[in-house]
Amino acid sequence: MSDSLLTEVTVSINGATVSVAPGTTILEAAAIAGVEIPTLCWASNLTPANACRLCVVEMEESRTLVPACSRACEQGAVIHTESERIAVNRKMVLEFLDTTNDLTQSPELQELITRYEADSSRYTEPSKMQDDIKIEDDLFVRAYDRCVLCYKCVDACGDDAQFTFAISMAGRGFDTRVSTEFETPLPESACVYCGNCVGVCPTNALQFKKEFDLREAGQWQPEHQTTTETICSYCGVGCTLELHTQDNEIYKVTSPADHSVTAGHLCIKGRFGWQYVQPPTRRLSTPNISS
Amino acid sequence: MSDLKYTNSDPDSHERDAIDAFVIDPPVRHEGERWVVSGLDRTHDSRHLLLPGLHLLQNLKGWISPGGLNYLAETLQIPAAEAYGVASFYDLFQLEEPEEGPLHHVCVDPVCAMGGSASYIQELRSNGDRVHESPCLGQCERPPGIFVQIKGDSNQDLTATTNIEPQFNSSSSNRLLRRFGTNEPVNLNSYKEHGGYQALGTAIELGGARVIEMLVESGLTGRGGAAFPTGIKWQSVADHLSAPKYVVANADESEPGTFKDRMILENDPFALIEAMTIAGLSTGCEKGWIYIRGEYATAAQRLSEAIAEAYSAQLLGNRIQGTSLTFDLEIRQGAGAYICGEETSLFNSIEGFRGEPRSKPPYPTDKGLFGRPTIVNNPETFLNVIEILNNGVDYYQSAGTPASPGTKLFCLSGDIARPGLYEAGFGIRLRELLSDAGGVDGDLQAILLGGAAGCFVGPEQLDLPLTFEDTKANDLTLGSGAVMVFSTKVNVPDVLGRLAEFFRNESCGQCVPCRIGTVRQHEVLLQIGADKANKDQLSLLHDIDTVMTDASICGLGQTAASAVRSAITLGLLGETRS
Ligand SMILES: Cc1cc2nc3c(=O)[nH]c(=O)nc-3n(C[C@H](O)[C@H](O)[C@H](O)COP(=O)(O)O)c2cc1C
Ligand code: SF4
Ligand code: SF4
Ligand code: SF4
Ligand code: FES
Q1: How far apart are CA A49 and CA B358, in angstroms?
Q2: Which of A7, B149, B407, B439 is most open to solvent, judged by the fewest CB atoms within 10 Å of its CB?
């Protein structure tokens, strides 16, 4: 029987049997089975780009490895998520990224680099992703030497969330970059500053200007940082905001990716319109009584 | 009218007029309407005009200006950033204003490098001509390959010095090449006099089901590299009942060392048109597309003349040959990107998206061009369909072996007495093929079989029968049928370096294993240079090979290490691993 006529498909993941709805990805089925698979270009609130290949797993009878994030479970498939073969592949993907990009602000990738024993020292003078940092406004910066070309920002700006299409992949091969048309600066482009691209970037290539300034000034202090949930005060939609603060000063605003209203995406007001909370001069705390 | 925003760059009047004349029926987008533009459900019907529109702008001014791009994108209602993303994907589009004068693309891949491309480039440069060092241009039988882009005029792939005599073996046992050299290529009557359009009559008489059955019985497999059974492919598309469905000819031919499809299009264009019509009528597809690589100027010209002739003779369009059936055919020209020969990348390219391969499944027979069931075949595969219908399954199988029936076109180039296109039954030994072409010019060092994505074969393997089964058993591939011959005069590390550079330049950049792996492979080979590779270098090459082969999305990355791997096994690069 063709898989499309089934109401349920059953697969084996690391020996455990899992039954899922047709169309369920290997990654989702693995999560049900309590098996974790590393990802980079995948996000719960975006269509899988299927680009980083960190999530590759073995599917018996497949010549090559398959990407867990986007491959749907096929009836009777026998899947292994950890093996010598998979480990070599993940290690190589990590070495490739680590020799190409500045990953110093990607703690999850650093952890994987250690776990899979990726060794970048075996490469002599590898070409790198080089790009001058783009600071074009007070809201966010773009440092593409950290960009792993995961497609997340492009998809968030496009038809996964924002439908603005201000940025696209441009160029080809190793020279591919995220870009506006003819590298037009963002303020002159179609960008509406929703910051959804910043919200999904996994490597801090896109980061809030405030965070960037703190890091540049050597004042970045994770141990002084907290996150506070609140509701956006601008309109009636009522998006949940997460205010990231350091010593009570907001440096970044996000929304939870699994939130039923926002799916992690916001508009310019909720994302960047928080300066009034912290005006340069102190807020009035007593009424001003005219004499 | 629309919520898409464009910058203030305006087109000049020539750009505006040209685009207005080209996009006759611009799409209208209503306030607030959002068109789905990605995934497989692409509903935007005029986006496929982006690629020809970009060709138009490029030809008009010699480059694509911000104003021109804006105006084209706005007319087609495509976001400017996406249009730029598409334009910047292709080698034949310039996005900065160039100097005046034609742009000469000269092939620097191994065979043309041996055939004097360096001195030709030097000559052009000393005349002050603009030169782009190009990957293989599919003219390996007459090196150096050359293609000239001329502002405001037709591009050319022939020069005053080109030997225009088509080089092929003329033999009475030829099947696919039977009309080569005896017919007038773009003369319909001449085609008919040589048996043309009999197969279409037979197909209409037999009906689609029987045609597909014959293909299945014949054992015909695809000649584009993957050797997938053609009959099964056609059957799966016929099984989908709802229209529209498409037939696509993949004439993007860019595999280094391969020039057979160019020769077919230049010398027998009606055969491809007839075979595609048969495919359409037999499987219920009313529209066909021929995707031809942008550098094949002569072939594209002849093909479009032949299509026009077929339309005026009612062999295309409505009521074909008095039936109630319709089949339309449209040409799309690529713009300099090897990856667009990968079938799903080709679909994206036609649709006006970046030529990045899609992940499979879904397969083209279920969701292909515009997300619809699609037959995609190589021109050589299509020509075999005509042979099978005209002469029957038994005759077809009288050449070749049981597992690889029929004949194969081989492209011989490099250090060989008579480079050119050769047709032979599957099972011919490499040694015989070389002697048919007059023998090796010098002492044989190695043969690259199957193109850049193929493998090196040493002199001790000359008794290899050229079949799918024998090559597979020896970890080799016939690939596209390229046979590049290298004598002992050739420096193999240089060739390997150039092959690695080819993949580095042609990777689409979508997936990490290939985007970065092809670069790292090239870097290690450059470091090794003419020296013996050390243990660390070999082990790094091995690991790069592993991840590209095992974890890349498409066949480009999956085969980008195969030539290097085979060279190491043959001891052509440092110590062997074993
Ligand atoms: C990188 C790459 C380039 C390819 N280039 C071509 C090509 O130029 N022509 C072609 O027919 N097939 C090419 N293919 C194979 C196609 O994807 C597809 O398998 C083929 O067109 C199917 O036709 P067939 O069944 O007649 O062989 C290429 C594949 C890859 C991975
Ligand atoms: S801020 Fe919003 S509109 Fe601007 S590039 Fe990012 S996602 Fe697109
Ligand atoms: S900028 Fe960030 S989100 Fe965008 S592609 Fe690069 S790494 Fe991914
Ligand atoms: S293997 Fe290479 S060409 Fe194919 S999708 Fe990946 S990056 Fe693109
Ligand atoms: S997470 Fe699956 S390919 Fe990136």
Answers
A1: 10
A2: A7
Per-residue pLDDT at A277: 85
Q: Tell me if A181 and B540 make a contact (CB, 8 A cut-off).
A: no
> Cis link prior to A279 (omega < 30° from 0)?
no
CA distance B69 to B71: 5
Interface of A with B in 21-50 (CB under 8 A): 47, 50
CB A102 within 8 A of CB A146: yes
| DSSP 3-state of A199 | helix
Tell me the C-alpha distance between B389 and A219, whole Å: 77
**Distance from the first to the final alpha carbon of chain A:** 86
Q: Specify the CATH superfamily of domain A140-277.
A: ADC-like domains (2.20.25.90)
Give the pairing type, strands B455-457 and A9-13: unpaired
Nearest chain B residue to A185, by CA? B7
C-alpha B475/C-alpha B461 separation (Å) is 12
Atom 8 (ligand 4) nearest CA: B508
pLDDT (average), residues B334-360: 97
Residue written as tokens 């959804």? Answer: A196
Count of residues making up chain A: 291
ipTM, two decimals: 0.95
State how far the alpha carbon of B363 is from the alpha carbons of A73, B245, B352, B371, B411, in Å.
16, 14, 20, 10, 29
Does B160 score more than 80 pLDDT? no
Q: How many of the other CB atoms lie within 10 Å of CB of B380?
A: 24
Residue B81 touches chain A, beta carbons under 8 Å: yes
Task: Say which ligand is closest to the CA of B516.
Answer: 4
Chain A contact present for B69, CB below 8 A: yes
- Let me know if domain A3-82 sits in CATH 1.10.3720.10: no
| Residue tagged 């907001």 (tokens) | A250
Omega within 30 of 0 (cis) for the link into B144: yes
Enumerate residues 47 to 76 of chain A having a beta carbon within 8 A of any beta carbon in chain B: 47, 50-54, 56, 64-65, 67, 70-72
Q: What's the CA gap between B416 and B421, in Å, rounded?
A: 12
Say yes or no to pLDDT of B578 above 60.
no
**pLDDT tens digits, one per residue of A207-233:** 999 999 999 999 999 999 999 999 999
Ligand 5 pocket test: pick from A25, A41, A66, A106 the residue with the most ligand atoms within 8 Å of its Cβ.
A41
Which chain B residue's Cα is nearest to A40?
B512
If you average pLDDT over every residue of chain A, what do you get?
Answer: 95
Q: Where are the alpha helices (DSSP H) in B334-418?
A: 343-351, 379-397
Interface-testing mutation among A58, A181, A183, A197, with chain B (most B C-beta atoms within 10 A): A181
- Of the candidates B302, B331, B107, B342, which has an alpha carbon nearest to the alpha carbon of residue B187? B302
Nearest in space to A81 (alpha carbons), one of A148, A25, A151: A25
Encode B433-466 in three state secondary structure. HHHHCCCECCCEEEEEECCCCCEEECHHHCCCEC
- Position of tokens 């900065």? B96
Whether omega for the bond prior to residue B362 falls within 30 degrees of 0, making it cis, is: yes
> pLDDT per residue over A229-253, tens digit each?
999 999 999 999 999 999 999 999 9
Contact flag A64-B66 (C-beta cutoff 8 Å): no
Residues of chain A with CATH 3.10.20.740: 3-82
**Would you state the pLDDT for residue A184?**
97
Check residue B530 and give its pLDDT. 83
Q: In chain A, what are the helix, strand and coil shares in percent, each to the nearest 5?
A: 30, 20, 55
B239 at A interface, C-beta within 8 A: no
* CATH 2.20.25.90 domain position(s) in chain A: 140-277
- In chain B, the domains with their CATH numbers are 2-87 (no CATH), 103-159 (3.40.30.10), 188-397 (3.40.50.11540), 407-487 (3.10.20.600), 492-569 (1.20.1440.230)
- Beta bridge partners, A25, equal A72
Residue A67, beta-bridge partner list: A56
B258 CB under 6 A from ligand 4? no
